[in-house]
Amino acid sequence: MQVQRVRPAYRQVADELRSQIMCGLLKPGARLPAESELTGMFGASRSTVREALRVLASQHLIETRRGVRGGSFVVAPDPSQLVDDLGGLLGVLVATPQLGIGDLLEARLLLEPAAARLAAQRADRDTADALRATAAAPRDSRDPSGFVTHMDFHTMILMATGNLMFTMMGQPVSDVLRTRLDRAAVAQEQWQNVDACHIAIAEHIANGEAERAEDAMRSHLLGLRELYGETWKDQEED
């Protein structure tokens, strides 16, 4: 016997309102009808409507304002906020058996070489110069490993594609990896190798060498995968 699962009422209300927001029927700045009106429109209880509005607020699609002119208003999705949320969710999942560090590194290995290729094809001179400068930046005494700058370099390449989806897919993975590497356990020679790889990748991108940029990024990430894998194993044993 096949049974069709029925969604909770508040999700049905949230889904309908989300659909109207995403298709443009409800535009940014538009005020939603009052709760009493929504209950009548959907034939739902006030608690159902309130829960639906909380769902939309958690997805940064509406915001609630207080006062005489208050209410629930549609807001334009903020990509940076969505990226932060995805990074937080990935961080939680990595702590469960369902998602491991290997999954993140494998996804990164598929995404970032393609991003390096596109960056080489699309980056303008200012972007290329910024990549070169970041790759060759001197170490900050507060971060002897240069790890923060290293991660920023990868983020810049994602952004240099000019495709927001690359940043939205890659940045949350990078945010999780920031917390999963024991920087002190990495030898200075390894950091120096990372620096050299970044300089080479930046040069390929600046020179418009798409295939070389892709190959260099892939080789670089394969080396990093071993480094992260060793660190992750130690954390699991603890």
Task: Give an overview of the whole structure.
- The protein has 238 residues and is mainly alpha-helical.
- 67% of the residues lie in helices and 3% in strands.
- It is built from ten helices and two strands.
- The chain has helices at residues 9-22, 35-42, 46-58, 79-94, 101-122, 125-135, 147-160, 164-178, 188-206, 210-237; strands spanning 62-65, 71-74.
- Strands 1-2 form a two-stranded antiparallel sheet.
- Strand 1 (62-65) and strand 2 (71-74) form a beta hairpin.
- The longest helix has 28 residues, at 210-237.
- The radius of gyration is 23 Å and the shape is elongated.
- The protein starts with 8 loop residues before the first helix and ends with a helix.
Q: What value does the Rg take, in angstroms?
A: 23 Å
Helix content: 55-70%
Order of helices and strands: HHHEEHHHHHHH
Instruction: Please give the number of β-strands.
Output: 2
How is the main sheet built? 2 strands, antiparallel
- Approximately how much beta-strand content do the residues carry? under 5%
Summed up, the helix count is 10
- Termini, distance in Å? 47 Å
Structural category is mainly alpha
Low-confidence stretches: 233-238
Oligomer: single chain
What do the pLDDT scores average to? 84
Tertiary shape: elongated
Strand order of the largest sheet: 1-2
